[in-house]
Backbone:
């Protein structure tokens, strides 16, 4: 225990590593080495053989730490599951991370191979490659490891493994049973998950779920996220003449599908970005306590707007966190005829809008899609779920084909949940800093099935830096965030709940 | 003269060729042979060598008929000019046709080579290839010649050449001086024409212009067109965040360029297709006499709507011909983000609409573009003519980049013009049928420079069938239309004006 207290003393000193804590140093170094090894196994979510090689590596690494592990077959890629030996009297924590990564285009990276980790320091605006042995005497927290999945999401997995080692070295008796589920299709929307969670629900049984994915708040402060928005999509297609027609011969005569689509889309939102569809925001109330929590997030509107290069944001909420409490309605794509050099003087045959809707717990995806369809019908459209035939076209003036995407619903754990309070307290104590509490984040983590099936509270405890270039070329992980991750995992797994 | 009268007697019998008129038969056959030869020289408007080979062929063919011809250099491809020896006491007719053709994609044609004319008969719904020698005993007017530019616009050129032969054979003394200008960039919008007409204005001097391009009215009746709409274009681009942003992180916060564009476009037209921009239709009045002329065109709305597969047309005019008397506003292309399989959950960086506007004489292109820009400004947009910088984006909420296309203005010759009356009378007499008089056609023929520079009345006298697949695969010319063309040219060039 003494050792642990000593570690905490070191940790509370913040991001600078104390000279006298060789243990943390050692396990950061171990993490760096092991992460290089792990990243070197490509993990393209689209490549079955890649995924299997990662599963093999993980089995070895978890088993070495005393976990019992299983490869769980699903309708898609297999899941990786591991658990430390269980004791009946302890609460169980289930960690969710993922082993798959986004595809890479090596030509867009500033290094030869995105799967060969490169160490870099920043010199002014330039990143400069450094030899790994220069870390021996100077474990610089601002230097970064560049490579696919260093942050998303292999880094946190390796941080957890090394924290287990450190806890063992310090003979810490864990106050929790520990289960770990590693998704292998997170970057492909985790389609096999709902059925797999049903099938393996006894195996996954736990008291709470901790998701270690995504970045900490941009301020760099310790962060607990209580929920995330869901998502669903709609594809809307309107129709003009059966084939593209000469805009001279039929301009002013054949209806233009682009104008029909523009008029429909324009009817859905006001100039400030508020959705005008009946009932779209129903059931959402933000009481003063909630507003206080949202306002406490240290966002800087000037920085956000500068990064986006916008003068004024949409006005669904009066500030960033408030805007995330509402479902969104986004035109993610538009297409009709041709633009640019290929533009031709035609009245196009059709016009298509791709819509995505980010969901909140009050707005179930199926319900929202229903409201949108009702709205479209009220605008005088005849709704079809397939391409209209010539007969359909001649029977109706305004036809629209609506194709519905699948629904991933939102989740949001109560801000007063005991496990949430525990996580916040641990992080606060570990880092001697206020914890950023995010009621709901904008993006979507596909862990809905765990929550709906296991009926347990879920929290996202991110470990990596906000500027990690997730999903993009030059993905990276700050070495300081490895220290952060080990400290955070150590705190969670060594602190008994009251 | 006797011979000519005999020919007229034959002509007035309509589309069936009289057994006793071997002359017409002979010259139709000559036309078919010569057209095969001409079409065999590819004429892709984008290929300089193609165009030159056509100019060489034309020089030979016109000179054989006693024309003096010249290749006239321009800022682009050279023009072909030819004139029969001039007599001072005769009025001069200037024929305009074009020698260039649209590019071909041979894989989309139902014949091996679009430049090798194929003869086909229709068997039910199927086209069946026929040997050319089967024409010797049966010059079937419903059979067709398939090949690039058979109709657009090499067919009419060869019809004119063979009419000259027939007139000569019959010793007809022409009551007109005849000039011919053949454009070599019509399919590329005749960009060199304005300057060339200025430069060669003395050479082109004439009393009236007859354009033999485009098809006769869909009814197949003799047709005179008094004008055509002009065209100009606008490209409109609206902006969201500087780079595409994650629709989860920033949905409800970063403005969406697709909604901005949709709202703008929706403000431009009502649900019936009428333009709502102030002043767009100013100056256009259709008096009862004009309305009568428009109504006399034997259009069949049911057929048109069936061909387009639409239930109700736009309501700018109450019928097809009326709608063409007004300028149009057409969205010919839309693009933002990605659609279909490539769709991604992003807020796009920008959204673009390609607009074309067909012009009428009352609506000068520059004036109309000004009205549209004024309207856009009134919708609260900050208008730029280039990509906005980061500073521009942070200084203005709604930015739009407007790129203006060049203007080809409309022309419309008075319906009471003496040369127009002459053409109508000749056609009426030649075919013993009412002539379809079209006040203005929807499409654009780029002969504006002739009219503005030479200040002469212009008429389109089309020669080919309406269903000729102009610009598309399987372009074709009905053999009956060769008879039509020779009769029409013969009538025009053999009838003295009163």
Residues:
């Amino acid at each position: 225990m003494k050792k642990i207290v000593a570690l905490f003393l070191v940790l509370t000193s913040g991001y600078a590593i104390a000279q006298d804590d060789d243990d943390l140093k050692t396990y950061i170094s171990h993490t760096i080495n092991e992460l290089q090894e792990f990243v070197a196994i490509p993990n393209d979510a689209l490549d079955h053989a890649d995924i299997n090689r990662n599963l093999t590596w993980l089995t070895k690494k978890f088993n070495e730490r005393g976990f019992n592990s299983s490869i769980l077959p699903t309708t898609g890629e297999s899941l990786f599951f591991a658990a430390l030996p269980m004791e009946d009297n302890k609460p169980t924590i289930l960690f969710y991370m993922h082993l798959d990564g986004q595809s890479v285009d090596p030509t867009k990276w500033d290094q030869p191979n995105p799967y060969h980790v490169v160490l870099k320091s920043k010199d002014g605006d330039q990143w400069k490659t450094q030899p790994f042995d220069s870390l021996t005497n100077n474990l610089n927290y601002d230097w970064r490891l560049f490579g696919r999945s260093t942050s998303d999401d292999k880094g946190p997995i390796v941080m957890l493994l090394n924290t287990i080692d450190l806890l063992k070295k310090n003979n810490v008796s864990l106050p929790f049973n520990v289960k770990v589920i590693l998704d292998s299709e997170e970057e492909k929307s985790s389609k096999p998950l709902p059925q797999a969670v049903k099938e393996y629900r006894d195996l996954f049984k736990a008291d709470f779920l901790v998701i270690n994915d995504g970045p900490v708040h941009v301020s760099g402060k310790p962060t607990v996220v209580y929920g995330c928005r869901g998502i669903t999509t709609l594809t809307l297609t309107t129709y003009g003449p059966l084939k593209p027609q000469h805009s001279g011969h039929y301009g002013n005569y054949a209806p233009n599908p682009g104008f029909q689509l523009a008029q429909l889309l324009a009817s859905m939102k006001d100039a400030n970005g508020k959705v005008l569809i009946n009932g779209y925001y129903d059931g959402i109330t933000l009481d003063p306590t909630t507003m206080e929590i949202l306002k406490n997030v240290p966002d800087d509107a000037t920085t956000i707007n500068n990064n986006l290069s916008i003068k004024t944001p949409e006005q669904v909420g009066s500030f960033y966190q408030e805007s995330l409490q509402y479902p969104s309605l986004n035109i993610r794509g538009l297409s009709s005829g041709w633009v640019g050099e290929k533009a031709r003087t035609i009245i196009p045959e059709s016009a298509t809008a791709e819509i995505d809707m980010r969901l909140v717990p009050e707005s179930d995806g199926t319900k929202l899609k229903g409201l949108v369809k009702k709205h479209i019908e009220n605008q005088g459209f005849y709704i079809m779920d397939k391409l209209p035939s010539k007969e359909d076209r001649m029977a109706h003036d305004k036809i629209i084909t609506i194709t519905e995407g699948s629904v991933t619903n939102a989740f949001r754990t109560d801000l007063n949940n005991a496990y949430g309070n525990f996580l916040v307290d641990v992080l606060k104590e570990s880092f001697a800093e206020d914890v950023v509490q995010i009621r709901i984040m904008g993006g979507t983590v596909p862990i809905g099935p765990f929550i709906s099936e296991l009926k347990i509270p879920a929290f996202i405890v991110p470990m990596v830096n906000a500027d990690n270039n997730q999903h993009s070329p030059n993905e990276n992980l700050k070495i300081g965030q490895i220290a952060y991750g080990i400290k955070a995992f150590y705190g969670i797994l060594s602190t008994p709940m009251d």
About this structure: The radius of gyration of chain A is 25 Å. Residues 1-20 of chain A have pLDDT under 50 and may be disordered. The longest strand of chain A covers residues 230-239. Chain A touches chain B through 85 residues (CB under 8 Å).
